[in-house]
Design the sequence.
């Protein structure tokens, strides 16, 4: 069975992205390196040089990684699109198990908790925030894994 190793996010502001993912979400930097390669061919990138930062859990560093990618000749924020607009075809969000209240408090303290949306569905507390690159990030309480099947059950009136 294939496993997801990492999700890559292109960033034009590495420091703001690190503040969000490392300091706010609480992921550890697993790797921070620059690489030369034929990225224009492989990734349709603007440059042959990129900086790659892997963030994740050092205890499980072989999966569930967020990769921040900055190209040597990155475009401007205007190229990033409208983060507040409706979902476009492609990646909808990145979902993480994290203490929702504590994570939102850290992000708020860093000035990175704009446009927070929260709901509770079938007893699962969840929130969505937007990272500095316009990527929606869903936060689910760590104990939600046991209740995720409830979201798939039909809801009946009066129950």
Sequence:
């Amino acid at each position: 069975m294939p496993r997801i190793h990492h999700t890559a996010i292109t960033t034009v502001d590495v420091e703001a992205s690190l503040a969000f993912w490392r300091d706010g979400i609480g992921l550890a930097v697993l790797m921070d390196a620059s690489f030369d390669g034929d990225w224009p061919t492989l990734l349709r990138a603007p440059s042959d040089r990129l900086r790659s930062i892997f963030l994740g859990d050092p205890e499980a560093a072989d999966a569930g990684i967020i990769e921040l990618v900055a190209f040597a000749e990155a475009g401007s924020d205007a190229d990033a699109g409208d983060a507040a607009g409706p979902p476009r075809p492609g990646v909808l969000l990145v979902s993480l198990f994290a203490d929702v209240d504590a994570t939102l408090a850290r992000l708020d303290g860093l000035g990175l908790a704009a446009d927070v949306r929260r709901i509770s569905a079938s007893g699962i507390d969840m929130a969505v925030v937007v990272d500095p690159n316009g990527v929606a990030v869903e936060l689910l309480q760590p104990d939600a894994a046991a209740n995720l099947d409830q979201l798939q059950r039909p809801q009946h009136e009066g129950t």
